[in-house]
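In keeping with the milestone schedule agreed at the kick-off meeting, the structural modelling team has produced records for the first pair of proteins. Each record is given below as a sequence line and a structure-token line. The laboratory manager (R.T.) confirmed that both were archived under the project's standard naming scheme.
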Amino acid sequence: IMILLTIIWGFSFILIKKSLVAVSPTQLASLRLAISSLTFSPLVYVYRKEIKWSDWKKFLAVGLTGSGIPAFLFFFAQTRISSSMAGLLNSLTPIWTLIISILLFGQPFHSKKMFGVLVGFAGASYLIFMGEHGIQGGAPLFASLVVFATLCYAMSVNMVQGFFGEVKPVIISSVSFFLLGPPAIIYLAFSDFPHVLVTHAVQRIAPGLSGWRKCRFRAYCRYDNHPFGSLYHKIELTMQQIPGLYIANSEGRGRGVFTTQNIEEGDIIEVCQIILIPKHQLPVIHKTKLHDYYFLWGEDLSECAIALGFGSLYNHETYPNANFILDLENETIDIFAIRQISEGEEITLNYHGEPGLADALWF
């Protein structure tokens, strides 16, 4: 059971990263809590006679530290750190659990356990301060959010043992999530989440082991007012750029694309038309300067494409602030923001097609 749990928990960090392309960290965390609350609600009814409702504050404390607060911390953290680093830092949970059990719950002190705690902290600190160019990659400030989340997990574990030693685990989980659900549902209902569901429908199909994806893009639409309801459509332009894009020197990387205005997460930055290079001409491209500027293209990625506009001038970053979609049907490369980009900031992409991947580039 523990092995299965670690596999499920490990997958969650990857799924978080995928989900953050379309929704904000706050929306994703609220959605997670809302779904969990609705799922557990029938069990609350089933066990209603066994639930001691006078302990609702304790149930709420367990829920907030075990699920509520960590959800928001992890989701915000994974906007800037990789899912692998988040998973590794999550291993701090048993370390915090031991410390809290000794300091707050009076558990006996063991020198061997403390030695393990110190080794664990040393390893976690090394991961955090490796910086953006380390093996795992990530921003120390955002990595610290994960550390605080593991502290919350440890508090929850100890409170479960201290407050609910004789209570069925299913009751603890059901009531804790049940109490967290209403605020999350209310937030989602009054946020732009319904709009996001309609307008940010992104489909990805993995093209084998190459690590690249071919994508059909129907995202970042605009609403039109209509007497019979809201209709939506993709904006079709032969060339679309937000105002304020400009080319400037990027330290150590030559030219780069910058913005003179703030760009919100999810905004289309540029829709680049492409010049399609057929398969038989690709060997020739490899012998020219264009080798450093083309995108793989086609159903089997055997062709290549040169992006027009600023499309070939966005610099690579392991943890970028933007991403791209290869729209094979319309023959465009669509650049969009995956987090807020500030005025004067350089716009970057991860040319592996997946933010967080740090493999060597082909150019």
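The second protein of the pair:
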Amino acid sequence: AKSAKMPMLRTLDAFAPAVAIGQFFAWLGCFFSGLCRQMSGNSVWNAHTAPVDPAAYAEVHLHPAALFIAAGHFVIFGLLLLLKQHRRFDGQTFWLYVLLLAALGLAVGITSESRAAAPIIGLPPSLLINAALAVTSAAALLILRRRGKKQKPISAARRDGENG
């Protein structure tokens, strides 16, 4: 992109939905391979996968966390496609993706029973990282919007005969 002199924020806007749908398929693959983390519990959402060592999970009921995360990425993909047509400034789609990704990470981190990493100030590191990403992306969205780099929505640009 740099050698082709493509604008960075506009390029990131173009790739954000593709990354979201790619993560959807990656989490599906991870679930069906049996290698992804899963949350323990007893509910109607329990699922059986093909773990590497089936004897390890003989008596454990698991929530299919990978499927929940995959569904979250699919929703993010849909939202990005809908909102991309109405973007007002370069970088809006990308930073919205980062914000939604952080929100998904916070939701999964709060509901997850896994506490493998040592807590920092009483919280798991994943929650702190996702909170920092959320704050950073919200700040970036505000800064870029205030910067005044307004552009016409894509549909209006096409009506005027301009190239996207």
